[in-house]
Amino acid sequence: MDGKILISNIQNGIWFILGLVAFALELWALVDCLRHKPSSFEAASKRTKTFWLALTGIAAVIGGLSLLGGGSGFGFFGIAAVTAACVYLADVRPAVKEIGNSGRNQGPYGPW
User: N or C, which end of the chain is more exposed by having fewer CB within 10 Å?
Assistant: First the structure.
């Protein structure tokens, strides 16, 4: 019986760590979305800032609730929340960041 308890504790710890990583990712996406101007989203043809704020905000709430549940709430909604944050960070963030930097002084090797 002791082996089962040990394995259960290790498994719960792994789920908690995964939930913590997912929540950090979702929170990063939300905070980054807050930093950019609404016009940058439209100029990059990436929906609107309101859309991405709602999506990343809901993802962060789901991640927080999952974390409060011990990290084991990685059901369909948890996976959808992580996916939404990853789509923002991998696709939308670079495009919006590039548009936001285009107004600054640019040299041949980047901003100066």
Answer: N
Count of H-run helices and E-run strands, the chain:
5, 2
Q: Is this prediction's pTM over 0.85? A: no
What phi and psi, each to the nearest 5 degrees, are found at residue 7? Answer: -65, -40
Q: What is the largest CA-CA distance in the chain?
A: 67
Q: Give residue for tokens 């696709």.
A: 91
pLDDT per residue as tens digits for the range 54-111: 999 999 999 999 888 766 667 889 999 999 999 999 999 999 998 877 655 566 666 6
Contact 99, 43 (CB under 8 A): yes
100 contacts 46 by C-beta, under 8 angstroms: no
91: its two tokens:
């696709």
